[in-house]
Amino acid sequence: MQPLEASTMFKATNDLLLDVDELSVGVNVAGREIGVLSNVSFNVGKGEIVGVVGESGCGKSLTALAIIGLLGDNVRITGGTITLDGERISSLSSTQMRKIRGSRIGMIFQEPMVALNPLMRVGRQVKEVLVIHAIGNRKSRKARVLELFRQVGLPDPKLRYRQFPHQLSGGMRQRVMIAMALAAEPKLLIADEPTTALDVTVQAQILDLLEDIRTRLGTSVVLVTHDMGVVSEVADRVVVMYAGQVVESAPVAELFENARHPYSVGLLGSVFGSNFEESSDELPTISGRVPSIGEVPSGCPFEPRCENAIDVCRSDRPPAASVGTNHIVACWSPVELPRMRLFGKGVESS
Amino acid sequence: MSQTKVAPDFLARSTSRKMKAFRLRKVLRWWPLLIILIALVAAAFPSVLAPYNPDLTNLAARLEGPGFRYGAQHFLLGTDSLGRDVLSRVIWGVRPSVVVAVVAVLVAGVSGSTLGIVAGTIEGGVGTIIMRFADMVLSIPFFLLAILVVAALGPSLVNVVVVLALVRWPIYARVAYGQSIEVSKRESVRSAIALGARQWRVMRYHILPEVLAPLIVVATLEVGSMIVYEAALSFIGLGTQPPAPSWGSMLSEGEQYVSTAWWISTFPGLALFVLALSVNRLGDLIRDVLDPKS
User: Fold this and answer.
1) How far is B190 from chain A (nearest CA, A)?
2) CA distance B231 to B236
3) A328 and A206 in one domain?
4) What is the residue range of A51's domain?
5) Residue pLDDT, tens place only, A289-312
6) Chain B contacts of A72, Cβ < 8 Å?
7) Measured between beta carbons, which residues in chain B are less than 8 angstroms from residue A133?
């Protein structure tokens, strides 16, 4: 394990769409600024699907909101940069940022049941995005919406155009959301738990759709999820976050085979079982809970829950280090290889 | 199954009679609409409904009771101190009440709702400033402000509207504010913002439609209050100026004769009471219709 050098990182600049570099975010609580994201770095290539995973409260959604510039009133970026297609967007004014939202970054929210305006016909809602970004004219917009509906696989687009959200199923609503997010042809799609609220069968369809969009339109996707199964299905690379920090990032096959951070190993284990071959009766769990805001320990944030913890974990934060091609781990005491070969790419959510 | 088919005839008949009564009651609940319709017609065409010119004085027939006949003239509700027909004056008096009430509600409602939605949607200091200002206005005694404004601008119906709008906008602002805070936190609003919608668009298309229902109920109830307030201002001489007929000024004119000529103040008072009650009742009915919980 050697210290991380720029050359070993995934940095093919011309193919890079989104670069989050050392991003720190603080929340202001009663006049005191508390760090909630610290030095988050990852990047997304053009046409790449990157899964951002972690438990609830580890900063995944906050990272997504920071990218799209929708941090709340008392939350602000305290350090680092976000670069989209060569343009630094973390320092843009709110007006400039508004123009980027929707047109260059699309966002899909978790709950398709509540993410659509219940009082507006869905066709009109998708059309709104075109109006906002001044795309097309009165006539061409409707045609474009119908085309989008076909693209996202909504059956009977003309009927759907006139319907209200309550007349659609959850899966169809999520397709409408995706159509809205894609309306202005953004290069980057941020999907915040897009399948969490859906049935398993519908989940698979939506994931297929995301993959299809990537293939046909070359859209990059940041897929925020807590579900390793979802990641294994569509993501190219995985960023594992814990307590506002990136603890491991690797191509999906690499992570599933050679996860090094104890937290990643634990996450995989709690989904697929510690040993896939011998189907044990109990799923292993990670004991304890994510530290809440303001009580993140000074050393490694995962140390209190970590079985591999050593003395240095308590006192110092582990630096990010390269342990393979595009494989970065922030851990003093990573899980040693060769580990039992548990997770192949072929292993899907079971 | 077969038993229900051979259910005794009288049972079916009584059920259908009950159903009819139920339906009839459902229709009759809307009686306020009839009163309001009559008031609106009277406000629009008082000259058609009123038997006489409301300003025509007849000193030979002053302070005569209801049903008084003077030659060919028949004063159904009596005459006032100048011998004017009380019925005609009551009918002509609908107009200032209705016009002032509706215009005041529109002005106060539109401005108050806008301010409330803005305050509830935009995070940060703006909302706090607007709402504290609204609280401040609500704490000013109504008649004090009314006297102040009329003293500064002079008594007229326009100024009555100004006063009422100034005093009542916080009512709408509060309702709109509370509702929009809740609505603006919804994911549908957040997703609209995430796709690049401007703030005014969010307010117009995503928040206003959601907060409209309670605002309509408040506005309807306010029309009733405004009718009473207009009469009150006219009563103390700040609204409609004599000799123009209005219920408030008729009440104050009749006040000194109340022991000898009760009809002068009773009939405009009765009209005021019935119309205000009808409007309030209509507000309740609209609330029942718009409230999905009931």
Assistant:
1) 8
2) 9
3) yes
4) 42-66+188-341
5) 777 777 777 888 888 888 888 888
6) 123
7) 196
